[in-house]
Amino acid sequence: MSEPTRNFAEESAAFQKIWLESMTRLMQAACLFPPDSAPPELIREIRNGILRALGETWNEFLRSPQFQENMKQWMDSAIAFRKLSNNFMVRVRKEMQAPSRDDIDTILLNVRHMETRILDRMEELSDRIEELSERSAAANSSSGGSAAAGRDSPARNAPRRRTGKKTNQSRSP
User: Fold this and answer.
1) Tens-digit pLDDT profile for residues 48-67
2) How far, in Å, CA of 150 to CA of 136, rounded?
3) DSSP H helical segments within 3-100, as ranges?
4) pTM score, two decimals?
5) Would residue 103 be called left, alpha or beta, if left means φ above 0 and alpha means ψ between -120 and 50 degrees?
6) By C-alpha distance, which of 7, 22, 102 is closest to 55?
7) Sign of torsion over alpha carbons 120, 123, 127, 128
């Protein structure tokens, strides 16, 4: 007999042994009841015995080296298949000259960085415009212009968006 066939036969025999023991325990649990107990109590005892026997049997089965080895082989095969399919899809995208997921993620990250830089620069420019408007209003009021004209200027009354980021106010325009 070849080696894989012998291994399969041994594993099958071990599996059959576990199930035979399980069924034996189930029957023993079902028959262990006092003859004078009431039927509902009898049913509860049978159910509890069956569940206890099944729990013990499954615990033995799931902790058995054969089961754990088979699960390890299955997980290794699943991981290998996933890697193989990912590599295949990368090759297909490359042959079709389509962008990969990494390319798209890189582009999105760069766009976010540009957006942040543009918004920061716009806030700096807004602060500089406000500073210039205040200087202009101060110059108009000190040169004899009306104070009402400086207060009603559109740049002074325009709503501003604050990000909470402090800018360097010491720069001159």
Assistant:
1) 888 888 888 888 888 988 88
2) 8
3) 3-31, 39-63, 65-95
4) 0.38
5) alpha
6) 22
7) positive
